[in-house]
Amino acid sequence: MKDKSIMHKFMIPILAIMLAQTVLFACIFLFSGTVSRLNDNSFDILTERTQSRKNYLQNEMIQKWSNLDSAEASINTAVDELLAIHKRSSAQFDQETGTAILNAISGDLITLLREHAVTEAFVILDGSGNSATKQGLYLRDLDPTTNSDDNSDLQVERAPSSVTKKLGISLASTWSSNFELSAADENSKFYYLPLNAASDYPDALSSDLGYWSHPFSLSPDFGSSIVTYTIPLRTSDGTAYGVLGTGITTDYLAGFLPYSEIDINKKGAYLLGIREDESSDLTPIVTSGLMAKMYIGTSETASLVPYASYDNIYTLEKNDRITDDVYVSTQALRLYNTNTPFEDEQWILSGIIEGKYLLDSSSHVIVMVLVSFIISILFGIISAVIVGKVLTAPISILGRVLRASTAETPLHFPKTHITEIDSLADAVQILNRDVERTASRFSQIIQAADISMGAYEYNPITNQVLISGKFLSLFGLSERTHMSSEEFGAQLKLFSAAREETPDRNTYIYKIPTKDGGMRWLRLRLIGDDKPYMGVLSDVTRELLEKRKIEYERDYDALTNLLNRRAFHAAMKDIFAHSEKLKVAAFMMWDLDNLKYINDTYGHDYGDEYIRSTANVLKRFIPYNNAIVSRISGDEFYVFLYGYDNKNSAMDIIRSIKAEMDTEPFQLTPKKQTRLRASVGIAWYPDDAVNYFDLIKYADFAMYTVKHTEKGQIAEFDSNLYHRDSFLLHSKEELNKLIEEESVQYVFQPIIDAHTGEIFAYEALMRPISAHLATPTDVLRIAETQSRLRQIEKLTLFKSVRTYLNYPDIVAGRKLFINTLPGQMISGREVKEFEYEFGGILDQLVFEFMETEKLDNEFTQDKLDYYAKWNCQIALDDYGTGYNNDSILLLLHPDYVKIDMSIVRNIDTDRNRQIMLQNLLSYLKYQQISVIAEGVETSAEMNTLISYGIDYLQGYYVGMPEAVPARNSIRSVEIRSCQSGLDT
């Protein structure tokens, strides 16, 4: 039989007793019913919270959002009065009557929107025909919690133009003058159902015919989905002539469902849905809660399974996403009265929470029972150990004495009166004295040399460790000459967390804090192959700090603390050497926008802070897996994101960081704030390239592409564009030369007065002097990709006016049109230079806003302030195309508008162009804006334009661009003749 220790013999009976007690306790607890009562309480709390939230939501929907009696009465009264005034019946609705009605009730609709705290309010008129096009007025307030006295927080989504002008409320981006409501379209039910119900139930109150709609969008570009409540509108004779409604966006509605009240840890969710025909399935309307997407997903219905133990408690039907029990408490909202047309559509509010969170109380109790069981077993083990220790104490005395011995107290074993053990103790004492003498001599040598080092040697026979030099004091411990191997190992183990591995498996580096708050690095080298018996410890603090400082300064950018170009290329070389780690990867080039402007306008200190702020945002890539971030040059950063299974995963991260950058504030001055702005080019591995240098080239091209199209956005590499526009990457030096040497000249095309035929003004047109940049379009494209548009703006302003002033006898009294880029602004210093040099003719200048990009509101306002100060005039180029629309007219208030040549071309034969011109002229003349027709190339076009009342003419037919401005108009006689014919 195997020998067993005393500890082993005592442990078995003690453990058996404790196990029996624990099992008895567990049985009593499990059969007491405590767990089921805890579960009942959890379901009651879920039901109570859902019911409370249902009551609140129901009150909002009935008492506020659908309480339209006052508005209905006011609108019906106004309609009856208008019909009486116009002597029309409800069956004689026409567009003029409809417009009058909408003008009359617009105030009531605004009051309805404000008082009922809804996001939408609308009236739709049925008209006199069966057309799907309906007149109406649709107002939107995306934040009903705050109101503006001037209605600046409102938007018009649908209304005739005449109504919008009267209201003075801004138009939404999706504005249309009419509603398009097809009876076959599901999204039109909100209109047709209550309207038809009014015909089917002529004696019913309008409030009983109200209809709550399913979520829908008014048009594909409408934005978020809405839920509406609509009632029919009827004249005094009972004829339904339209509907009145309110609406709530689903995003706003979700704010009334605070899912955190379901579970404090935010593991719950709310689902507001519709149940029809007593079905247990719900059609989702809106959800709230982080877990709702997992529970419901994009399903059109949520399938519920009755839970037999409780009323109004269900479980979600399990599927690929839902594998555990998810409990649902349902509460029906009473939105419709009984015996009304839509009472079968029952709205249900459901509180949802997964079983493991709902029933965590009972789960916690069960866990505590298991913990108690484990503690009981551990208690038994500890008891057995203690008893064993007591019984074996006399035999362990010698071991403790040996371990407790130090250099200051000579080793001395007490007598055990056991012959063999006492003989062994005497031999150990003799060996110990020899070891102490050897250690003392070595320590004296080390101390005499004043070297920060120490050593140890292990003697396996005595199980002692001989210590010499400053081995222990380097660790901050008291020096000793020897100790047992167990004690020595325990001392080193205290510093195991501070130990760093090195390529040499027998060498370790320890990072030890010092008493003065600094750090000390120690290197321990072990001697011996498989079983090291000796070690040498030395202080390498100075060596490591110097090495790390050199490495850091070599590899990191001083301004941003990001990897520099050398370190980034080294990291990329290393990762591409292990291509199996790459999977799907995104190589990004981030290029700062407006850095040059900030440096020139506010100084390089602000520019450096702008770079640092951008770097701090890009560092947010680092917590994600496998991200390398670097600053490559002044305003360029590289980011490499790799190791993803698909593009979408990486792109979600990129868009998230870009969104954070776009909203990151940057303080320019104590009173002026802007936001960080950067353009991003992305090349994908392996789709675009598998070579590191090709990825750089393609990301560079993608970044320049976005600079050329719409700065501040993200662009992915497009091989088709690359083959077409790759010259942009190779024309940097050509552009630099053009800007530095001002290698452009300006020609002047006359603008002719369409009434007198005389030259009214000239437009300065750029002509590059370059072999590769042949046209102004080429110059602008490459300048945009190189962020040099501001220099082109400056070059155009100064050189065009200087050239113009070379011919004072010709241009005297005539204006000069100068093209200006909407998104560019010269520096404050350059503005003062321009004022000083050209102060005498500033009132002759007309600044023409080009259609190269969307207007930058900040720069545009700065420009308008300067132009007003200089008494200059403003022109808007290419009106009727691209970005130039009515909203820009309201922003700029220009003195001149240039009709785009695409409208002028063939206007003498194209009736559609003539109608378009007539409408534009009517609107612009109403705004007291002079109109210039561009691109006039034939006599027929010129005569047609004059006949429609154009103010000025420009084009090859009336005057070619010339280096020396034309002194007289070549078409003056022909124009005056045409005007005379019109007068007669």
Report strand %: 15-25%
How far apart, in Å, are the first and last alpha carbons? 136 Å
Helix content: 40-55%
Query: Which class of the largest domain in CATH terms?
Result: Alpha Beta
CATH superfamily of the largest domain: EAL domain
The gyration radius over C-alpha positions equals 42 Å
Largest sheet: 8 strands, mixed
What's the total helix number? Answer: 31
CATH topology of the largest domain: TIM Barrel
Structural class: alpha+beta
What is the total domain count? 6
Q: Could you explain how this protein is built, in words?
A:
The chain is of the alpha+beta class. The chain folds into six domains: 6-32 and 363-404; 66-253, Beta-Lactamase; 257-358, Beta-Lactamase (2-Layer Sandwich); 419-547, Beta-Lactamase (2-Layer Sandwich); 556-730, Alpha-Beta Plaits; 738-983, TIM Barrel (Alpha-Beta Barrel). It contains 31 helices and 36 strands. Strands 1, 2, 3, 4, 5, 6, 7 and 8 form an eight-stranded mixed beta sheet that branches. An eight-stranded mixed beta barrel has the order 29-30-31-32-33-34-35-36. Strands 17-16-15-21-20-19-18 form a seven-stranded antiparallel beta sheet. A hairpin with a 5-residue loop joins strand 19 (507-513) and strand 20. The longest helix is centred in the middle third of the chain and has 45 residues, at 360-404. The radius of gyration is 42 Å and the shape is flat. The termini are far apart.
